[in-house]
Amino acid sequence: PLSKLPHVGTTIFTTISQLASAHNAINLSQGFPNFDPDPELLKLVSEAYKKGNNQYAPMQGALSLREAISEKIERLYGTYYHPESEITVTAGATQAIFTTIAAFVHPKDEVIVIEPAFDCYEPAISLFGGKSVAMPLVGNDFKMNWSAFKSAISPKTKMVICNTPHNPTGTIWSKDDMLQLQEILRDTDIILLSDEVYEHIVFDGKLHESASKYPDLAVRSVICSSFGKTFHATGWKMGYCVAPKPLMREFQKVHQFNVFSVNHPLQLALAQYLNDSQHYLNLGGFYQEKRDVFLNAIKGSRFKMVPSAGTYFQLLEYSEITDEKDTVFAERLIKEHKLASIPVSVFCKSDYDKKFLRFCFAKTNDVLDKASQILNSI
Ligand code: GLN
């Protein structure tokens, strides 16, 4: 057959964004800010281009950036990753995730995917002949059922993919969740792919629980993160991943022949900016304010909400408004009310019949205001 991915179509982000623009709708669907990075960072980027850094970076990434990443992780989470052998700069976190799956998933291996799950995991698993095993989060608060998770592990389980703060639900894992995960994976050879791209966007005084904080998780983890999310620059497609040396060696075997190395001037600018600025430490507060502007404005609406605990996404539950399936309601919201969101069911392969839409609040207040007016009128 021609297709290796017969079950895969166009991503929901492309589909919804096209529909939103065709109907002139306010777009709170795909997750990206409608504002620019810090002017200081933009200045460093343009200087880096002018300083003649326009040829290949080292395969693993510019050393200054790997050092800055290593320092940041050690400062925040207390774990040291060696810049020489345990860090790779990637073309966004999606590439890091894809490369990790490519490097470790053999045909017939099982990969446990916690659902709803960001849409890039499953196609990569399929492409390399793996089988994804869906582990649904339960209830309208999307909690982990750790005993079900434990039962889903089989001798074929090669990898578990987890994601905190969680896209699309805006939930975060607690220390207790991490300890349960650590306990269940102890004495196995299972690799943990930890998608932590929203690590700096956590609210209400809570802490991000990185897999790197838990020694028995860290030894088996490839942790992916994103400069796009952290620095309001999703269009740069810059991210990184860290892992202990034996895992990173395998990761780099794939990376060097797929990507080889990523944008050099951007890496040098990001290194400088990470060293000069503590911007990312204020990111939680920055987005918490946006979440609150949005939630306060729609308090009187018929949508039900549990405030997002992290990420720049807010789920709204709409069962009081309609019985429609989320994909149908999301489409109607665009066409009739000119507001675009993401139906959560598209992130699920397993049975799912909850009534939630995902809204991105990484937007200026004028846009959040307009969206709120629409939501209040429904
Ligand atoms: N992470 C973004 C989101 O969830 C989308 C990224 C993408 O379109 N691939 O909206």
From TrEMBL:
Q: Which Pfam families match?
A: Aminotran_1_2 (PF00155)
Task: Drop me one GO molecular function for this one.
Answer: methionine-oxo-acid transaminase activity
Stated EC number for the protein is 2.6.1.88
Keyword terms of this UniProt record? Aminotransferase, Pyridoxal phosphate, Transferase
User: Quick check: keyword Transferase in the entry?
Assistant: yes
InterPro entries in the record: Aminotransferase_I/II_large, Kynurenine-oxoglutarate_AT, PyrdxlP-dep_Trfase, PyrdxlP-dep_Trfase_major, PyrdxlP-dep_Trfase_small
Which residue range or ranges hold the Aminotransferase class I/classII large domain? 25-371
- What cofactors are annotated for this protein? pyridoxal 5'-phosphate
From the Swiss-Prot or TrEMBL record, give the protein name: Methionine aminotransferase
